[in-house]
């Protein structure tokens, strides 16, 4: 090795050594806490803390991966907080029959309460804008609005006393002709309504946020979470004293109606690995695709048309009693158009809404009964589906 090369190596070594010494003595280690969010089961189950609370109190609880195929035994509690539901009239009847035999149903509002047959059974509707804060005009006002979009509500507990619960100001519940056994919140917008059904009971919640992992440890949220599944009245009507609590035999929790697809999970949690794999696969296919001469065309394969597949899928849903799923998108589209064009109509129950729509459609001459059937009627035959979609699309295009 030449002398100049040796000198260059020594100089580089000294420079690197000096830099390492300065870095070691000039940089101070500092520990900071970084919020990485929930991990494991808590990341995919927003009610995991409530599930473990019930189990720790001696009541076995579990969160279902989707809508229950069959209902739990009598004496169990079923908590349904899924934001998107396609509850059919048949399924609602099964739920109410199960409650009548001693079941305890806790139901939170979904994204389309006007189509919920359970709410319609008890003449309850969801209302928006009750006590909602005004739109913020500055950054300070935006911070204050974020703090005031929830309010404290006092709820009587079965064992006596009250619980203070942080509840979203909108949406809320409003009862109709059927008087509830118990209600919590102001009359213009209830947070909780309880109705008796046979040997069981149904509790309707405007907001189930207090049950989530983030909020269940605040205030009296855990106390109310336990009280929701009890089988006692808030007050004994004979002695006017708190009735003894009756724990359920078990608790089933439904946080979503359908399981996420594999493609959705990959896009959410493994997109980087999937993208790298696709790039490597593309590079390999490109390198393996180099050949001499033209590529021979593949022989055509006989295949069914797309319309045949669609027709077979619709026929299968009708034969399995899920015809309402086919009409659900058309119903949702009509409700969104009504909320955009006639917001006040969106707050009406189904019979009044059908009457308003019939009065507004003089040219099409659609009767209120036919409109009500399209909005919430059972789909049991192809003719029912055709008629319902035709009416819903006619109404949507005319608004």
Structure description:
By secondary structure, the protein is an alpha/beta fold. The protein has helices spanning 3-26, 41-44, 48-56, 89-100, 117-121, 139-148, 221-228, 262-269, 271-288, 306-319, 323-341, 350-360, 368-376, 382-398, and strands at 61-64, 77-80, 104-108, 124-127, 150-156, 162-168, 172-175, 182-184, 192-197, 200-205, 251-254. The strands form 3 sheets. It has a 7-stranded mixed β-sheet with strand order 1-11-2-3-10-9-8. A two-stranded antiparallel sheet has the order 4-7. It folds into 2 domains: 41-131 and 148-254, no CATH class; 307-398, no CATH class. The protein is built from 14 helices and 11 strands. α10 packs across α11. The chain is extended and about 100 Å long.
In short:
With 399 residues, the chain is an alpha/beta fold. Helices cover 42% and strands 14% of the residues.
Q: DSSP helix count?
A: 14
Low-confidence stretches: 132-148, 235-239
What does the radius of gyration come to? 30 Å
* Domain unit count: 2
Helical content, roughly?
40-55%
Strand order of the biggest β-sheet? 1-11-2-3-10-9-8
The tally of beta strands, per DSSP, is 11
Structural class: alpha/beta
Describe the global form: extended
Strand count, sense and closure of the main sheet? 7 strands, mixed
Strand percent estimate: 5-15%
